[in-house]
Design a protein that fits this description.
The complex is a heterodimer of chains A (about 210) and B (about 280). Chain A is an alpha+beta fold and about 210 residues long. Chain A contains 3 helices and 12 strands; from the N terminus they run H-E-E-E-E-E-H-E-E-E-E-E-E-H-E. A 10-stranded antiparallel sheet of chain A has the order 4-3-1-12-11-10-9-8-7-6. Chain B is mainly α. Chain B has 12 helices and 3 strands. A two-stranded antiparallel sheet of chain B has the order 2-3. The two termini of chain B are about 30 Å apart. The chains are: A alpha+beta (about 210), B mainly alpha (about 280). Chains A and B meet through strand 2, strand 5, strand 11 and helix 3 of A and helix 3, strand 1 and strand 3 of B.
Chain lengths: ~210, ~280
């Protein structure tokens, strides 16, 4: 009797889980499709960086978007940009087969967890907060080697539902450089621990899109 | 006094060793800039390896501003050596060659002669620093052009290219003041001995010794560090901070002026009672 009950329970939960995954996966694939349909464009960007050991004023320039994998920046002067564009990183997550799990809702936003099927994938898991207008409001990507990336997006009616602002947070290691190279002989070792990991944020504001 | 300074300047101009400093700077700056031109990207990528792991770096890192900043670090050891070659020889060299007796027979006070020699030494130090600035910035602009300056000090500071000129001006002024301290020290040692090697080697030994002791043992000597003149040789770097520590810079200028005064007073005192008869 107990055995039959267990089989029934297992069968019911599997079918429920599978149904939820399919809906979530469909929604994610729709969003990726939407992202891939964005035509090439250029826009003005303002880049602000908030990292403990980096002091740099706001940088302005242009972004040239050709495809999610081909984004160029033309910045006046020198700028720090995220190692990988969130768009590029997230689309690479969907290139191979993946599992999408509906994690429920938070502030009217659906949370979908994505796990790539490829064991060698650089991204271990991703979680997306999607609002009722099918816009990603927030995403967290956990990578194998580079820690976690969090991105929060704001929108203001830009065509193709492009974000007007992306704020990316990620783990950064304290950069302790040899004094012989830097000329900093005043012993800065006291102030910061080597290899200390802290959170860094890069905020990019997009405007003036031209398709 | 001006006549005495002119005479001292004439002597310096006529001495071949005066040009060693300029030649050395020309070679050091030329060699470094050429090395950076051909291998710069690889050399810099070693320094910013960790940054490149976390960020995508957009823009030109190697430019005239970065090279000028890197070469300004040479005022810690290299430029002082070149200054000592001339200022260390100012009195001791003349004592060794016997011309000091002739000078002191002239109707000038010994204090005036010492001050004239010291001022000439200072002018030489200033000339070397101006040459260093012109060479590094001029050749740098020719080879690499301008750009934002990345300072790898206490983390990473990026200064916009239109915000660096005044910083370099004050940094070179601060560096020049430090070099005047070196000139004063070697002049003072020069007044104590009768051979030219002593002041040159003596000053270099003091500078290297203090640099090693206070670099390696900074935590032990941190309380006396602000009062040691060699620790002020890198204070020009403060001009490349976002929030400039004006108080630290004012103290640095004051400490260095006090050292210049002390070294020259000791030098004058010793030179005034220097025995030239035996």
């Amino acid at each position: 009797m107990i055995r039959w009950l267990l089989i029934l329970l297992f069968g019911f939960s599997t079918s429920l889980f599978s149904a939820q995954s399919n809906d979530a996966k469909k929604r994610m694939l729709n969003m990726v499709g939407k992202l891939e349909k964005i035509p090439p464009y250029t826009c003005d960007v303002k880049i602000n960086i908030d990292v403990k050991f980096i002091k740099i004023k706001e940088r302005v320039g242009k972004m040239i978007y050709r495809s999610p994998d081909d984004i160029d920046y033309n910045i006046k002067g020198f700028a720090f940009l995220p190692k990988k564009e969130m768009g590029t990183t997230s689309t690479s997550l969907f290139k191979e087969d993946f599992i999408a799990i509906d994690m429920g809702k938070e502030n009217e936003e659906q949370i979908i967890k994505v796990i790539p099927m490829d064991i060698n994938s650089e991204i271990v898991t991703g979680q997306f907060w999607i609002d009722s207008a099918d816009l990603i409001q927030k995403m967290i990507l956990i990578t194998k080697d580079k820690g976690s990336y969090t991105a929060e997006m704001s929108y203001n009616d830009t065509p193709f539902d492009l974000p007007s602002k992306i704020s990316m947070s990620f783990d950064v290691k304290n950069q302790k450089m040899p004094a012989l190279l830097t000329g900093d002989l005043e012993g800065y070792a006291d102030e910061m621990e080597e290899d200390e990991v802290s959170k860094g944020t890069i905020t990019i504001t997009y405007s003036n899109h031209q398709f | 006094m001006i006549r005495l300074i002119n005479i001292e300047l004439f002597k310096i101009v006529k001495r071949p060793r005066t040009y060693i400093g300029f030649l050395a700077i020309f070679l050091i700056v030329g060699a470094l800039q050429l090395a950076m031109y051909f291998e710069g990207e690889e050399l810099i990528s070693i320094a910013i390896q960790n940054l490149e792991n976390d960020f995508r770096l957009e823009g030109k890192i190697i430019n005239a501003n970065l090279l000028t900043y890197l070469l300004l670090n040479s005022i810690i050891i290299h430029i002082p050596i070149l200054i000592c070659l001339v200022t260390g020889d100012a009195i001791a060299g003349e004592a060794a060659s016997g011309t000091l007796r002739l000078i002191l027979q002239r109707p000038f006070k010994r204090t005036e002669i010492y001050i004239a020699k010291a001022i000439t030494g200072f002018l030489y130090a200033i000339a070397l620093m101006v040459f260093l600035a012109t060479m590094t910035y001029g050749l740098g602009m020719l080879l690499f052009g301008s750009g934002d300056l990345i300072v790898l000090r206490r983390g990473v500071t990026v200064i916009a290219s239109d915000d660096v000129s005044w910083r370099f001006f004050y940094a070179f002024c601060s560096g020049t003041l430090s070099m005047i301290v070196v000139a004063s020290l070697s002049m003072m040692i020069s007044s104590f001995v009768n051979n030219a090697i002593g002041p040159i080697v003596g000053t270099i030994a003091i500078l290297i010794g203090l640099n090693i002791i206070f670099t390696l043992g900074a935590p032990i000597f941190k309380d006396i560090l602000p009062y040691v003149f060699t620790s002020h040789f890198i204070k020009w770097q403060y001009f490349f901070d976002f929030d400039i520590d004006k108080l630290a810079l004012q103290q640095s200028v004051m400490v260095q002026f006090i050292y210049i005064l002390i070294f020259n007073l000791i030098g004058i005192w010793n030179f005034s009672r220097k025995d030239i008869l035996t």
